[in-house]
Design goal:
The complex is a heterodimer of chains A (about 475) and B (about 450). Chain A has eleven helices and 23 strands. With about 475 residues, chain A is of the alpha/beta class. The radius of gyration of chain A is 22 Å and the shape is globular. The two termini of chain A are about 20 Å apart. About 0% of the residues of chain A have low confidence. Chain B folds into two domains: about 300 residues, no CATH class; about 35 residues, no CATH class. Chain B has about 450 residues and is of the alpha/beta class. Chain B starts with a helix and ends in a 9-residue tail after the last strand. Chain B is built from eleven helices and 21 strands. Classes of the chains: A alpha/beta (about 475), B alpha/beta (about 450). At the A-B interface, strand 22 and strand 23 of A face strand 19 and strand 20 of B. Strand 22 of chain A pairs antiparallel with strand 19 of chain B.
Amino acid sequence: MSEKEKNIISEVTNSDYKYGFVTDIENDIIPKGLNEEVIRLISAKKNEPQFLLDFRLKAYNQLLKMEIPNWAHLKLPKIDLQDIIYYSAPKELNPDKKFEDIDPELVKTFNKLGIPLEEQKILSGVAVDAIIDSMSIKTTFKESLAERGVIFCSFSDAVKEHPDLIRKYMGSVVSYNDNYFAALNSAVFSDGSFCYIPKGVRCPMELSTYFRINAANTGQFERTLIIADDDSYVSYLEGCTAPQRDEHQLHAAIVEIVVNTNAEVKYSTVQNWYPGDKQGKGGILNFVTKRGICNGDNAKLSWNQVETGSAITWKYPSCILKGNNSIAEFYSVAVTNNYQQADTGTKMIHLGSNTKSRVVSKGISAGHSNNSYRGLVKVVKKAKNVRNYSQCDSLLLGDKSGAHTFPYIEVKNKTAIVEHEATTSKIGEDQIFYCNQRGISTEDAIGLIVNGYAKEVLNKMPMEFAVEAQKLLQISLEGSVG
Amino acid sequence: MSNKANKTTDKLVALYEDNKADLFENSSDFINQERKIAIDYFKKTGIPTTKNESYKYTDLEPVFANGYTKFFERQKFNVELNKAFQCQVPNLDTYTVLFSNGWFYEKNSEYNSLPKGVILQSFQKASKEHPELVEKYYSKIAKPNDDSIVSLNTALSQDGFFLYVPKNTIIDKPIQVINLLRSEKDLMVTQRNLVVLDENSSAKLIICDHALSICRFLTNTVTEVNVGENAIFDYYNLQKQHNLTTQLSSVFIRQKKNSNVLTNTLSLHGKLIRNNVSILLDDEGCESNVFGLFLADKDQHIDNYTFIDHAKPNCHSNELYKGILDDEATGGFNGKIIVRQDAQKTEALQSNKNILLTDNAEMNTKPQLEIYADDVKCSHGATIGQIDEDALFYLRSRGINEKEARMMLMYAFAHEILKKIRVDSLDVQLIDLVESRLRGEFSKCDFCNYNVKAANCPK
């Protein structure tokens, strides 16, 4: 083996999470713990109107009555809500969020993450809302989007500038009492992104939110609300990273999407929170409630996700197909390595007639990890001619990993055609042999096969993401080939 | 637990406490010990409600709330069952075992022609005559503290059948167990069976469930089967009762090295049927075939729960369940497969296909795969749909009227399960039976011909 080859191999097998650095900035932090005072404090810090405070308190009271759900196929560490800081924001931020006023350290951070905040530097034509801990730092292209009538800003700004929209839509898809983590988020959420696409507008660029956890001992609780009015279109991207720490950090987000008549929303996620080290120490606990509703006829909602990070992922992006002829899609690749655990999937609730949904889920588990698909397809009595196709495949790399599927199918109408298929397998020795024989090393062959396996989903990703996702997939699986 | 479920549970526990003396008197200490564990567990967990993930689609509380008479001693009948009841499947030659309300019928013939060493007798009798065998196998795979329906059975059961097939013995004819229910009051029946097959043996079991009186019956049956090395075991269950019966049937099978098992559950009639089939592949080289067919109409409910545990490498399991639901019928399927960490080279296939004939019918299906080994081939598929319009058109264009064409397609759908039957002449008979069931002719039993007059009991 040549020296160069050796270098490559050692680089590959020892490469770690590359976003694990910490930015040293001064933060405005409130004390640890969760109580009514803390909620009032968060609300006061953000100068929120009364209705929002009422909403938070209602959610908090609901939370007190709830327990952490334990039905998922996960081994949960103890989560102590009193041991978390619920608000941490970089200090001295100019309210105008002019680029010149942002702490250069922060700009550097985002540059390092590959998310430049200077508009002239952005080639890809993607508008970004960059969020660090509890605060939105900068929303790019805000003005040029406004010309088309598109509202894209941080959630806090939206509360100030468009309270009517917030009041109308917040909690309409994921109510404050939906589940434990939704209640927690509704009580303490700090910031997030808001996006409104008016009637008949095709959003000229991709919108994106980049979430970054930085401060220690904090949790991140953000809310995203996307409203696509009649005949509009938007493609939305979400990315996330966090520093490398030994203790777990909690991330409990809510994403709500409203798709009106003839509108289309595409929501893509590359989730790359810190997954913990090789012994399973630390990492982000990712408990996310994502749900969209196809409110009007012919609406279309598509969830695309690549899940590689987090120590624990608990996430079920769902679609309520209320409008007739509406279409929903869910494409997912979930990769778990080392001691990661993922319990993820989707819910397709068919309420309207002639609605269609398609689920393609690809799970890859390596190391000591466990990867589960949990999904529900529900057809109510009055929904005629519903069509669903679900496919969930699992690929096992290594004999200590687990792959599981838990699909639920509930059909109450005879005209529905619902299909579900699942397979579990490992990479065939003959496939590897075929590649080896043609001079492709085993490591590369596995990368090749995994990429081919995930291609169907990666193809659905916006271009910029697809490239990143492909790389990520390879990095996540490094060292898993025995 | 809800208040209602609590109340019903309390009633059942009280039933146990009130009849404790009768229960304990006729059983061995070992069995009574298990009773205690079981009732303690049942007290704690109670009647499973839909909150229980395994019973998500079947609510048992209203069924138990109904209130039933339960007899704790053998009843005397003035009818000779052997004479009154004759199964008239042509060419089906079996060893027939009659059961009346869950009790081994005392006038069953002696089975002198059974191969040497085979024991086929009442479970109650066996627990006294063969305590070493019973204690070795009883309550081992059907644990008294796992599923509360099994716990209830363990606590209340007194009789059933016991079958022991010694080494290198093949039973030439199938054993047919005919469970007859006849009563003048609503009745709860608890039956507990134990089957042990030693190395290189083979047995085929056909269980037929019939209700002769128009009363509400609730049967709770648990069957434990131990299949030894290289043994072959077939289990067919024909469930054909009526619209007032509830049938809870749990079958637990443990397979040893290179054994081969086939179970086929045919649910043709009953108000509520819940089948638990649990198979443990406990050694290498086992093959397991788990099949089921259910046909439901009116407001019937049929729920099949299967659990296949691949504990050891190189085993093969093949599962297929099919159902047709008409009128307001509801169905459930829950198929769980676990492949344990060292169970490499496992091949586990599962499929569930359902047809809904009306908009009021409902089907819920929930396959579950939990896989901890990497060198495995596992797949599962589930479909819910209606009769293929293209196929219907094809048949109609060839001059077959719509009704007949639909019948043919449904029949073809069901046939896939029926052709898996490994008993000659039984398959032919069942094919006819399923066809007449699909045509809606189910008032009389076509399979068995009995002369016992159906007693009408007050509701």
